[in-house]
């Protein structure tokens, strides 16, 4: 009797969550729509999941049929070169929709009004696409206001988003257009995380580039081609982390040290900076930086407001370095003193040989 009840209730639960097998309207056949545990907390969440459906008509033909209850929309791994205006049904209110993932869709262009009706979306992923946001000939930004309907946006993920053919040797054109996009929105009020990883960026144009995003807390720039420390964070009161790992930073001169230390406004907590896996040239020019690290990690400074340099054990020397050596956290200063001694000896020897 009990077991029959249990079986019945299981069937009931499955049919109420699963609908006719997948719970989706016919236009989204193949997708999964329904409540399931989601995220690290496993909270029951209404997920509409159209991953790898090989959809290749225009995106709005599918997205206009997304169930109104949807909280998380995964439209990943399809083929949508153009995102046209009004992706969602404009007659509906998607009040619960807080996360939209449009990664891996081969997106090349986005219409200025594509994201209308997404005012509740907090997290937007556009990772791994082929996007151009400026005109090939005029270099002007095509739709400066594309992000402006996203009135609640807290996380913008643009990892490997932009066209390599367009921007490979043109970081500045990309950066100028991103500046236009941020300038034409109120993202400065809401945005807490910006991910620009893996976009072949060689420069951010200005050390003040992020100042227009005054609420930003986390900046992710890993896996680009930046050659110097690029950010003056004195304008960013809430900033808590900058990830610059796996770039092309060769040295950290006094100006870079000043940039890390700069905090014109009183910062709320410590700033965490990750510089691991950069090809540091390990010679004497790095000594001031390592003295700085030693100073800020020493117990004598008030540790609440000084920057924290993360993953020092993953610092590495480029093969062009005068002396190549594994720098481990504990023996950092010893190694560097040793480097400078070896360096001096080598110079003296060269002198003597002459
Ligand atoms: C979405 O669907 C894909 C492919 O079926 C699956 O691998 C993934 O785990 C699903 N994600 C969620 C959150 O249900
Ligand atoms: C679009 O998808 C359908 C069904 O998977 C397929 O038959 C068609 O060849 C695809 N068209 C393009 C242009 O990829
Ligand atoms: C959009 O929503 C309205 C109101 O619910 C509905 O009548 C209409 O059929 C929907 N359009 C599409 C394309 O689903
Ligand atoms: C990316 O888009 C450009 C046009 O902007 C096109 O020439 C190129 O073939 C596309 N690359 C891929 C991998 O789809
Ligand atoms: C980018 O610049 C490098 C070096 O200047 C050059 O070898 C490469 O061909 C350029 N690539 C493109 C796509 O223009
Ligand atoms: C920013 O917000 C203000 C006040 O809510 C509004 O007047 C203005 O039009 C918004 N700007 C943009 C670009 O959305
Ligand atoms: C950072 O910017 C502030 C404000 O523009 C400026 O006063 C300060 O000198 C800058 N810091 C560095 C190291 O350039
Ligand atoms: C060490 O750090 C403290 C706190 O940031 C600073 O006041 C002091 O000038 C630094 N000393 C050196 C030698 O860098």
Helix content: 10-25%
Q: Could you tell me which ligands this complex binds, including any ions or cofactors? A: 2-acetamido-2-deoxy-beta-D-glucopyranose
What is the typical, i.e. mean, pLDDT?
A: 85
Characterize the main sheet.
11 strands, mixed
Shape label: elongated
In terms of DSSP E residues, the strand content is: 5-15%
Q: Please trace the helix and strand order, writing H or E for each element.
A: HEEHEEEEEEHHHEEEHEEHEEH
Q: What is the tally of beta strands?
A: 15
Provide the low-confidence segments as ranges: 1-21, 324-334
Structural class, from helix and strand content? alpha/beta
**Terminus-to-terminus distance:** 99 Å
- The number of helices is 8
* Biggest sheet strand line-up: 1-2-3-5-7-8-9-10-11-12-14
Query: Radius of gyration, Cα only, in angstroms?
Result: 25 Å
Oligomer: single chain
Signal peptide: 1-23
Keywords: Leucine-rich repeat, Repeat, Signal
Pfam family, one: LRR_8
GO cellular component, one term: plasma membrane
Which tags fit this structure?
single chain; 354 residues; alpha/beta; eleven-stranded mixed beta sheet; two-stranded parallel ribbon; 14% strand; elongated; binds 2-acetamido-2-deoxy-beta-D-glucopyranose
Describe the protein:
One of its GO terms (cellular component) is plasma membrane. The protein is of the alpha/beta class. The protein is 23% helix and 14% strand. An 11-stranded mixed sheet has the order 1-2-3-5-7-8-9-10-11-12-14. The radius of gyration is 25 Å and the shape is elongated. The relative contact order is 0.06. The site of one 2-acetamido-2-deoxy-beta-D-glucopyranose (NAG) has 5 residues, from loops. The site of one 2-acetamido-2-deoxy-beta-D-glucopyranose has 5 residues, from helix 7.
